[in-house]
Amino acid sequence: MPIDVEIVSPEKRLLSRAVEMVVMPGSEGDLAAMQDHAPTIVLLRGGVVSLYDTQNVTGPADERFFVAGGFAEITGSRCTILADSATPVAELSRAEGETRLRDAETAYDDADKSDVPALEPLLERIQSARAQIETAEAN
Amino acid sequence: MPSLKDLKARITSVKSTRKITSAMKMVAAAKLRRAQTRAEAARPYAEAMQRMLAELACNMADRDGAPKLLAGNGKDRTHLIVSVTSDRGLAGGFNSNIGRATRRLIQRLQGEGKTVRLLPVGRKGADFLQREFRGDIVDRIPGSAGKDVAFAAVQELADRITAMVERDEVDVVTLVFNRFNNVMSQTPTELQLVPLALPSNDNEKGDSDASYEFEPDEETILARLLPRNLAIQLYRAMLESAAGEQGARMTAMDSATRNAGKAIDRLTQTYNRTRQANITKELIEIISGAEAV
């Protein structure tokens, strides 16, 4: 019972194939999509998208991508992940994550703290950069 | 009548011009292929985004307090025109078409008593608009200079436009760019970015009728999706424009090469005639000299 997964970044399509289950980092917590999932549109935070090719979905993931945030559209037969940027976890760079974290923290420090709605994207940038460092480290 | 030496020099010079134009044609052809590949690679994302946006927007449209990027701020006073041109010339009518289309749009809007502000992308368009509408230019954005269009740079521009809309500095944002039809033809196109002109998706409605769930909620997702969509629209336009530029240059350089070839043929013929005439003249001189003896 496979589900078609597509991971696309603005610049290209990174992956398009059928898998058993895909787990993605939703802004409210991780969620998994399998076939016949209810149609959902999800906001993503920075984190890892894991693909499981076989019925054995409790074991280690078959393929993992780091996404820096984005959106996902899930329907019963298809899951499209619109990533701001996506990298296979094996190629993830810790140094790049640290640069991103520094930039994000500087942007946050410079921001006007009274403008709360504007701070949210900045906090998300920090979270996404931290997630990148953690993922790269655990690798 | 030009001397043989002059003719020879001109033939040599036209020949080296032809060499240059044909090399430029070759380069443009290679870059065109690359630009087209990139434009195609960007399509899946844009299409998926469009789908999600249509889904969200029809849920939100009848509600009050829709985001400014979607519905505008209700006014129609200040128009921002973003016109996309190339950094380099020698591409036939590619840039002047955009220039003309932009000027027409500006004059129409100013005729209606609206304020126009300009944000030209690419050096050629900026130079063109600066002559006539210097005071209206907000800033000049550098183009891609014939290299690949970088999404990060486009994102920056999109953030800037978003900020202008949020601060109510502009009410309507229109993009003017060359749509890539094929190698031979590019059409200057106006695309309204804010308020968003949504494609009518009546025919698609059928299968998306299964109503979506949203996580966290519609407002939050829409608020994040709209700026992203703006960036994607800009990115797409710039990719098309980049491909169009190479296409236009290829066509222009192809005809330049052909014209140079024709000029060379003509000059060579004149050269040969002149040479023949000189020989005849010399012969006549010798013969009449011999007869005189």
From TrEMBL, chain A:
Coiled coil: none annotated. Gene3D superfamilies: F0F1 ATP synthase delta/epsilon subunit, N-terminal. It is a peripheral membrane protein. Residues 4-86 form the ATP synthase F1 complex delta/epsilon subunit N-terminal domain. Its main location: membrane. InterPro entries: ATP_synth_F1_dsu/esu, ATP_synth_F1_dsu/esu_N, ATPsynth_dsu/esu_N. Produces ATP from ADP in the presence of a proton gradient across the membrane. F-type ATPases have 2 components, CF(1) - the catalytic core - and CF(0) - the membrane proton channel. CF(1) has five subunits: alpha(3), beta(3), gamma(1), delta(1), epsilon(1). CF(0) has three main subunits: a, b and c. This is ATP synthase epsilon chain. It comes from Endosaccharibacter trunci.
UniProtKB/TrEMBL annotation, chain B:
It is a peripheral membrane protein. It is found in: Cell membrane; Membrane. The keyword Cell membrane applies. Its main location: membrane. Pfam families: ATP-synt. InterPro entries: ATP_synth_F1_ATPase_gsu (IPR035968), ATP_synth_F1_gsu (IPR000131), ATP_synth_F1_gsu_CS (IPR023632). Keywords: ATP synthesis, Cell membrane, CF(1), Hydrogen ion transport, Ion transport, Membrane, Transport. The keyword NADP does not apply. CDD domains: F1-ATPase_gamma. Produces ATP from ADP in the presence of a proton gradient across the membrane. The gamma chain is believed to be important in regulating ATPase activity and the flow of protons through the CF(0) complex. F-type ATPases have 2 components, CF(1) - the catalytic core - and CF(0) - the membrane proton channel. CF(1) has five subunits: alpha(3), beta(3), gamma(1), delta(1), epsilon(1). CF(0) has three main subunits: a, b and c. Belongs to the ATPase gamma chain family. This is ATP synthase gamma chain. It comes from Endosaccharibacter trunci.
